[in-house]
Structure formats: structure tokens, C-alpha cells
Amino acid sequence: MRHAVKGRKLGRTTSHREALFRNQLASLILNERIVTTLPKAKELRPLAEKVVTHGKQGTVSARRWVLRWIPNTEKRRTMVKKVFDEIAPRFSERPGGYLRIVKLGPRLGDGAEMAVLEFVDREAGAAAPPPEEKKAKKAAPPKKDAAPKKAAPKGGAKEAKGGKAKAGGGGAPKAAPRTKRGESS
How far is it, in rounded angstroms, from Cα 168 to Cα 117? Predict the structure, then answer.
């Protein structure tokens, strides 16, 4: 029994789970809104709120703590700068609860409960919304050509020209018939 064990494993090892949270946190900082599964959103929210709280402190040690949770990419410094210069000042008067989780319903492919994790004071036009979930599209009906194609003669191209067609049909040679184990042909 898992008495008093907090946190979800999400079917991943510790290092994989931390890398997942780092990448999702980076996407959240850049776009200020992400679409993910509900358990992942519930696990990411406390971490993201701690990042904003450290951003409100504005100290060197707070910057180093935030750097620890942002993946090592070329945008790393700009993301930390955004946390400390843009996101944290918006929440200077707010004592916590910087993020909201909005449930979207089940995902089409596997039925996983989906959710949006976004900042509470996010403006409608502040960042472009992420692409909506891809839905299965039906194949477009083939377009009808202006001139219908002429049907090929039944005998094949060689018979149409007067040549002889092969008796075997001209395809790849047929494989030998399969036999039961132990029998030889």
C-alpha cells in the first residue's frame, strides 16, 4: 500500500519524469498555455507555481533554482528572463494560485483525460494558442478529371501490338506450396 506517498510516477523512471516536467515547464513559460493529460497537468502545476514564486523573489539563488528546472537549450536564458521580467511581476500582488487547470474531456485515440494548464491572468491574445488536437479526417473523395481515361485492352500491351503474351501472366514466379512439418515434397 502506498500510504502517504505523494506524487504520481506516470509510468516513467525518475529521470524520465523530471525531463518530462522540464520540457513541459519550458513550453508553459514560452506559450503560457499547454494542452496535456490531466495527471501530468496536476503534477506540473505545483512545480510551475514554485518557479513563479522564485521569480517574484528576484534573487540570484532564485534564478539558479529556476535555471535548474529549465532544460538546457539555446532559449534557456530568455525563458529565465521571461519568468523574472514578465511573468512574476504580473503576480506580484497575488499570494499563490498562478495557474488554472481546465478539463477538456477524453482524447480520441486512447480516452486519456485531457486538460489545459494556463496562467490565471493570461490575456486572450498574449500568446498564440497551441494547435488543437488532431482529429481523424476522412480521406477526400478523388477529383474527377475533365477527360476520362481510356480503358486498356484486356489482353495487355503486348497483345494489343500483336505480340504474344506469356502464359504465366508475366508476374513474379510463384512460390512452392507450403507443406506440413515433417513432410517433404
Answer: 64
Q: What would the grid cell of residue 6 be? A: 505523494
Q: Choose the CATH number for 15-119 among 3.90.1030.10, 3.40.50.80, 3.40.47.10, 3.90.70.10.
A: 3.90.1030.10
CA R_g for the chain: 30
**What is the DSSP annotation of 41-95?**
HHHHHHHHHHHHHHHHH--HHHHHHHHHHS-SSTTHHHHHHHIIIIIHHHTTT--
Q: Which of these, 17, 15, 16, lies nearest to 7 by C-alpha position? A: 17
Domain boundaries in the chain? 15-119
In this predicted model, what pLDDT tens digit does every residue of 121-154 receive, in sequence order? 876 545 455 555 555 555 555 666 555 556 655 6
Report pLDDT digits (tens) over 27-78: 999 999 999 999 999 999 999 999 999 999 999 999 999 999 998 888 899 9
State how far the Cα of 66 lies from the Cα of 68, in Å rounded to an integer. 5
How far apart CA 22 and CA 154 sit, in angstroms, is 64
Closest CA to 31 of 131, 142, 150, 107: 131
